[in-house]
Design a protein that fits this description.
Elements: E1 4-15, E2 18-29, E3 33-37, H1 44-51, E4 62-64, E5 67-68, H2 74-78, E6 81-84, H3 96-101, H4 116-128, H5 144-157, E7 162-166, H6 174-189, E8 194-198, H7 202-208, E9 211-216, E10 219-225, H8 232-239, E11 244-247, E12 254-257
Parallel strand pairs: 3-8, 3-9, 6-7, 7-8
Antiparallel strand pairs: 1-2, 1-4, 4-5, 9-10, 11-12
Helix pairs in contact: 4-5
Length: 263
């Protein structure tokens, strides 16, 4: 049994009178791959931002490596947790190499220059994500798939134990989706990083993660083994509709198939 690297107890978050997260409690094991699913507005992004302290949460409601999240200095936290936000159209005026190198900021002193460890970390991250040939390209000149792989490269160059990703394959074509999935699989299974990924793709969540957290209206509907979510008793509570299932031809796991159009 692996030790918990993240402990969440009674986490709530509200904006004005609207409660976005409601009494969330769970532990995430060191080296686990946890997928977060749920409809729009379920609280997936808010939960990730609370885990990365982008949004403030109640004291001691989140602990990372046994220490309250609020007690970390920013650089100290950035050596443990990295975050890949949702894909956007932000125009970064940097080359890919410069952008990924900036992820090394947690290890830099106020007057320090880049060292061999920084350069090696960036090189390894670019190679892992297959973006080394893009190093001299401007980030804004990249396709959506290329840019998303560069964002993942930056998170890997940050060299953290925990990797948070918010819908990392949204808007990507099937090839780029498969490449991102392969990267995340390797860094989890081979490098032992803890991966927490929010996704709208229930099939991907089942195939990638050992465990799934399903949210609806800020509360937990399901948290448990991935395959066990694939039944209408649970998914109808999450999404308000029923689904059709088949067995995956390679894994034997149940997956959702689209329904035929109705006249």
């Amino acid at each position: 049994m692996k030790n918990s690297i993240i402990e969440i107890k009674g986490l709530s978050y509200r904006v004005g009178r609207k409660e976005i997260l409601k009494d969330i409690s769970l532990n995430v094991a060191d080296g686990e791959f946890l997928s977060i699913v749920g409809p729009n507005g379920a609280g997936k992004t808010t939960l990730l931002k609370c885990l990365n302290r982008i949004l403030p949460c109640t004291a001691d409601s989140i602990k990372v490596e046994g220490k309250p999240l609020a007690a970390y200095h920013q650089k100290e936290l950035a050596r443990i947790v990295s975050y890949v936000p949702q894909a956007g159209d932000s125009l970064f005026p940097f080359t890919v190499y410069e952008f990924v190198m900036m992820a090394r900021y947690p290890y830099a002193g106020p007057f320090s220059t880049l060292n061999e460890a920084d350069r090696q970390a960036v090189h390894n991250a670019l190679c892992t994500t297959g973006t080394e040939d893009l190093a001299e390209r401007m980030v804004y000149s990249l396709s959506g798939g290329e840019r998303q792989k560069v964002f993942v490269a930056a998170a890997l160059a940050q060299d953290t134990k925990i990797l948070l990703l918010d819908e990392p394959t949204t808007f990507l074509d099937p090839r780029n989706q498969a490449e991102i999935h392969g990267i995340l699989w390797r860094v989890n299974r081979e490098a032992g990083k803890t991966v927490i990924a929010a996704t709208h793709d229930v099939n991907n969540a089942v195939l990638m993660g050992e465990r799934i957290l399903a949210l609806k209206e800020g509360g937990i509907v399901y948290c448990g083994p991935s395959a066990q979510i694939m039944n209408n008793e649970i998914l109808e509570r999450v999404y308000g509709k029923t689904f059709l299932f088949v067995q995956h031809p390679q894994t034997g796991l149940p997956i959702v198939v689209p329904e035929a159009a109705k006249s």
